[in-house]
Structures are given as C-alpha cells and as structure tokens.
Amino acid sequence: MLHRPARRLLARTHVLHYPFWSNESLLNAFDSSASATRVAARISTGALDRDHSPNGDRMGYHWPTPGKEKSWRQQTYSTGFRKVEALQQGMAEMVPHAVPMPSDIRHADLVVNRSDHLKAKPRLDPIELKFGAVYTDHMLQVSWKEGPGWTGPSIDPLAPLTLHPCAQVLHYGSGCFEGMKAYKGKDQRLRLFRPDMNMERLSQSAARLTLPEFDKVELLECIKELVRLERDWVPAEEGFSLYIRPALIGTHPFLGLSPTREAMLFVVLSPVGPYFPSGLKPVKLFVETEVVRAYPGGVGDKKVGGNYAPTMLPQLRSAHRGCAQVLYVLQDGLPGGGLVGESGAMNVFFLLQENGMMELITPPLDGLILPGVTRDTVLAIARGFGNIKVSERNLRFDEIEHAAETGRLVEIFGTGTACAVQPITGLLKNDNTEITIPFDSEAAAHWLAKPPGMALAQPGSNEPFSLCGRLTRTLIDFQYGYVESPWSVPIDP
Ligand SMILES: Cc1ncc(COP(=O)(O)O)c(C=O)c1O
C-alpha cells in the first residue's frame, strides 16, 4: 500500500499511465536507480505517447506511430482546458527521471482515511430530518493546480476547509455544484440515479467558470466509494435517501479577475427524509416578474453558486406572502405576460387540456433553464405513457391564465432531485390575485400506493386521474430499483 504523498506524486507523473506498470511496481522501480533510469529512458526516447480521442480527451497511452514520435520535451499536455508545457511544472526536481505531467482524477489513486470518531446517527425521523442539515462522517476531496493538474483524491473525516481569504470563490463566486441522491432499495442495495447527467452538468458548469475539467467516470467512481463507506446512513425505507453534494470551487488566492489557477473539488453527503412524509403536499408559488433569475446569454442553464444567492431575497419575500417558492416569469418586452421560466430549485410543468387532449408543457432548454435530471426523466416517462402530448416549448404567462380561466389548466408541478415531483396548487401574483389549480390528493394517493411497476400500466377506466401521482410513483420505482432500468446505477458493496 502506498502512503499518500507517494500516491499523489505518482499520480502526477507521466509513467503512471504506462499500461504494464502498476503504481506499486513503479514506486519500487523508483527505489532502484537502475530501474528508474530504464523507465526514464523509455519515456525520453518517446516510447510512451498520449492518445487523444477525436475531441481531445485523454484516453490513456499507446505506442506512437512510427515516424511520428515526439520528444516529451516538445509535447504539450492538456490539463482541464489549458495546455501546459511538461517541464514548466518543476516536478522533475522532485522525482528524478520521471516526467511530470498534468494528471486527472483517478479512482485508482483514492486514499481512504477513516474517521476515528464516528458520529452517533441521528434519529432519521421523516418529519424531523431537515433537508441538508445533517452530514455523514466523511467527505471526498481532491485539489487541482494549473500545471500538475489534479492530485490524488482522498476520503477524509468531514472537516472544515482551509481557504486563503483571497480565494477566488470567496470574492467572485467561482464555484459550481451538483445535487444528486443515492437510494437504498428493499433489497438493501444502494443505487444512484442517472449520475452521468450530474457529472456532465458539473463539467459544463465548471467549464463556464474556467474551473478545471475532470474525468467524469473516475470522479463518479470516487463518489461511489464515499457512498459505500457511508451506506449505514441511509435507511432502506422508501422516501429516505442520501443527498450527494459535489462542489467545485476556485481557490486561487488572487484578487485580480483571471481564469482559475487553483481549485478544489469536494463531495459531502447528507441523509434526507421522504419528500412527502404525509403524501404529496401541494404548495403555492409567487409569480416573480421583477427579479430576473436568468437571461439570454447568462448562466441560467449552469449550476453555479452565483445563480442562487440572488434568489434568496425573492424567496424570502414570497415566503412572507405564504408561498413556498418563486416562479420566475421574464418580462422580455413581448406581449403575453412574460416568458415562464422555472422555480428557485425546480423545473416546472403545466398540464393543459384542449378539446379532450392533454398537453404537458415545460419550457425548452434555451439557456434560461437548468437542464434538470428529473425534468428529463419526467419528460421520458410522460412520453412513455402515450396518451399525453409532451411539449418542450415556450409558454407565456397569459396562456396559463387563459387556460385557468377557461377551466383547461389541469395540473402544475415542479420537478427536482430534492422534491421529485412537487404539486403546485396556486400561483400568487404581485397584485394579490391568484390562479388556483385544484389538487386531488385522493387521486394522487391512489397512484402513490400502486405496487412497483404498476403505475406504468395504462390506467383502468375507473381510476382517478393524477399525472402528478402517477409520475411520482413511476419515478420512485426507478430510483429505488423496484423497476430495473439503465437509469438506476447500483453501488455494490
Ligand atoms: C434552478 C434549478 N432548476 C431545476 C432543478 C432541478 O434539477 P434536478 O432535477 O437535476 O435536480 C434544480 C435543482 O438542482 C435547480 O437548482
């Protein structure tokens, strides 16, 4: 077993990717100067080369095409979005004969430092367990520097971070994050739900902020390891889950505005209770037409911290008016009451009826909307139901009002990892008038009580209608693995 500094050092060296050498054997090689010289000789003659996918991603190493060999001194390597000269980093001074190169996050380098002081697990009461207020014992962390790239990842006891007061994230909001969950099914297996989408979104958010790229598959493997370690924090009860919060922040201590040169990625876990301890609970939204959450050319489609802090005030004002959240309606100067966007932390869906035909509408991914994992899933499930027209299209507020006035507004609900499907029964406007949408809690409860997989079947002619309830049941069946799907990714012990 390598000790941590050695692993980290090795993680930054070119030779680590040599297919016939494990990290351990490399370390041994460095113990013997003769072997080290042999390894270094191979590298310096260009025997090892980098392989690039068509889009420039790192793919590992291969023997170079004859005649195309380059000396390693002439090569540049991509670390994140930047190209750096290999020798620029000075790593050669630290490991003689080994060529430094920017390294990526790799699960094989993960070091686990278990906590000696495991916390007593709180009573995981569905009512008392507040979302995001309780954390597990460990966290995953890995840091990045322009040049050497990512260090080896580690799982450590949960602890405060040490940041320079001039760290970019503290001043310029150079930070992005994700929200995903692990679910424990009745079979005691833990499962992630479409985690590749979270990794992709984190990567897109990071790129927008000049935060470094990372290997999404490898990061996910490290996250799975953390979840495995903390598996006892999740009761095998439907509704409970383990909220996973990866965050990537710019830590470069520099007050000038410049692309990030140092960063840190960490992941913390928080057990959370059922979305609806006593069934689906509808909420009211405040129709926000003055504060703008996202605008064309902005970052509304990225999960960056800067999108959220400015929403606290409208959220607070809406709470004073008895609303749980805000519905952002952008006044874009066109007639029709403004462009319907999304809610503070949910995508929104509207079910309208026209000549006996149902249309489920959600705003399109035009840069103003966060591409929600749950949104995408609900769209796919609803399309699979077959008897509903499913549209991703612009919706102006007047259309909703008109549908409500003419009795054609059937349901409104929000979607998100935290809430799954959240029924909405009221839209409160600034002039205190309200659009109300009836919510049939009995019909919703009927669908929630369906045995696994049965909500997917076509409803019988006597069954009550609740799209909200039917979607929720179907989503839960997939998330907990009651219905097998490629969306559900088991984490085996
Ligand atoms: C602004 C916003 N919209 C929508 C969502 C829902 O996204 P997801 O379904 O991926 O959780 C979230 C939550 O992450 C959000 O913050």
Automatic annotation (TrEMBL):
Its cofactor is pyridoxal 5'-phosphate. Its EC number is 2.6.1.42. PROSITE patterns: AA_TRANSFER_CLASS_4. Residues 47-70 are annotated as: Disordered. InterPro entries: Aminotrans_IV, Aminotrans_IV_CS, Aminotransferase-like, B_amino_transII, BCAT-like_C, BCAT-like_N, BCAT_family. The keyword Heme does not apply. Keywords: Amino-acid biosynthesis, Aminotransferase, Branched-chain amino acid biosynthesis, Pyridoxal phosphate, Transferase. The keyword Transferase applies. Pfam families: Aminotran_4 (PF01063). It catalyses: L-valine + 2-oxoglutarate = 3-methyl-2-oxobutanoate + L-glutamate; L-isoleucine + 2-oxoglutarate = (S)-3-methyl-2-oxopentanoate + L-glutamate; L-leucine + 2-oxoglutarate = 4-methyl-2-oxopentanoate + L-glutamate. SUPFAM superfamilies: D-aminoacid aminotransferase-like PLP-dependent enzymes. PANTHER family: BRANCHED-CHAIN-AMINO-ACID AMINOTRANSFERASE, SUBGROUP IIII AMINOTRANSFERASE. Belongs to the class-IV pyridoxal-phosphate-dependent aminotransferase family. This is Branched-chain-amino-acid aminotransferase. It comes from Sphagnum jensenii.
